[in-house]
């Protein structure tokens, strides 16, 4: 039986061993066996992807799930795909990342006060986890938020799926979700009161950095950097 992790390093280790969702376990491993031709000489990670960033982060970025040939290949959030190219370039532009590119797990990239995570840790077919898979994975996110609680001041949520997945985890951790429930929108900003004695949490919405959004201009680098700058400021970074 799994023990409750005492720190983020232990949580990250435990999550990489999870096999709770049969469909996602089969898919992530099949993708890792079949591979994309361009990566045929590489060994895919093909496991759940842990959060990336320091354990005392003041800012979190919550996406959707690992990409089949991105994080599911490299083992690090948003690393090795076009979505990550956009995200890390923006993080570097606003001073939250040490370099603008994320190619593989050992490329030297460091995040400053920022941790990137996701409500679903295994690559799903067509980037669409089922509601059951989302709910099955939520305890990992809730535990991560609880461990980040002492320092966490702001979260940027990339897309409506992440937003809807995150709210119950926030509620289960230390923050009150107002009624009516805040809806996802790009550049929306909500401040959540704490249910413990700690500080409030700033929640900011941002369109997802998917190619569907960035190739069409729905999300431009300037729009993304504006949200990240605002999040950095309210997080005190
Ligand atoms: Fe485990 Fe989450 Fe992956 Fe499901 S999606 S197998 S709960 S890590």
Order of helices and strands: HHEHHEHEHEEHH
Total of helices: 8
Strand content: 5-15%
Assign the CATH topology: Uracil-DNA Glycosylase, subunit E
State the distance separating the first and last CA atoms.
Answer: 38 Å
User: What is the number of strand segments?
Assistant: 5
Strand order of the largest sheet: 2-1-3-5-4
Whole-number mean pLDDT: 97
> How many domains is the backbone divided into?
1
**Second-tier CATH architecture:** 3-Layer(aba) Sandwich
Bound molecules: iron/sulfur cluster
Overview in brief:
With 237 residues, the protein is an alpha/beta fold.
How would you describe what is shown here?
The chain is globular. The chain has a single domain, classed as Uracil-DNA Glycosylase, subunit E. Helix 4 crosses helix 8 (221-234) and helix 5 (131-148) crosses helix 6. The chain has a 5-stranded mixed beta sheet, sandwiched between helices. With 237 residues, the chain is of the alpha/beta class. The protein has helices at 8-15, 22-34, 71-74, 82-93, 131-148, 160-173, 211-214, 221-234, and strands at residues 59-62, 114-117, 154-158, 189-192, 201-206. The mean pLDDT is 97. The N and C termini lie far apart (38 Å). 37% of the residues lie in helices and 10% in strands. A hairpin with an 8-residue loop joins strand 4 (189-192) and strand 5. The site of iron/sulfur cluster (SF4) has 15 residues, from helix 2 and helix 5. Residues 15, 18-21, 24-25, 48, 120-122, 133, 136-137, 140 line the site of iron/sulfur cluster (SF4).
């Amino acid at each position: 039986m799994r023990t409750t992790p005492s720190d983020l390093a232990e949580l990250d280790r435990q999550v990489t061993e999870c096999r709770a969702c049969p469909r996602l376990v089969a898919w992530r491993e099949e993708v890792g066996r079949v591979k994309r031709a361009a990566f045929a000489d590489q060994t895919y990670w093909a496991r759940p992807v842990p959060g990336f960033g320091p354990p005392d982060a003041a800012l979190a970025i919550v996406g959707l799930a690992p990409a089949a040939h991105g994080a599911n290949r490299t083992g690090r959030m948003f690393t090795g795909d076009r979505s990550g190219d956009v995200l890390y370039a923006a993080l570097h532009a606003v001073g939250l990342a040490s370099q603008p590119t994320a190619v593989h797990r050992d490329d030297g990239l460091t995040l400053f006060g920022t941790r990137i995570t996701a409500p679903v840790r295994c690559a799903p077919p067509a980037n669409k986890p089922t509601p059951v898979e989302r709910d099955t994975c939520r305890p990992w996110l809730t535990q991560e938020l609880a461990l980040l609680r002492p320092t966490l001041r702001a979260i940027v949520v990339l897309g409506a799926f992440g937003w809807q997945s995150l709210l119950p985890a926030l509620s289960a951790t230390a923050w009150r979700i107002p009624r009516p429930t805040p809806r996802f929108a790009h550049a929306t900003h909500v401040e959540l009161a704490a249910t413990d004695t700690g500080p409030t949490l700033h929640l900011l919405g941002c369109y997802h950095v998917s190619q569907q959004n960035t190739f069409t201009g729905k999300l431009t680098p300037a729009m993304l950097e504006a949200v990240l700058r605002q999040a950095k400021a309210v997080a005190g970074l």
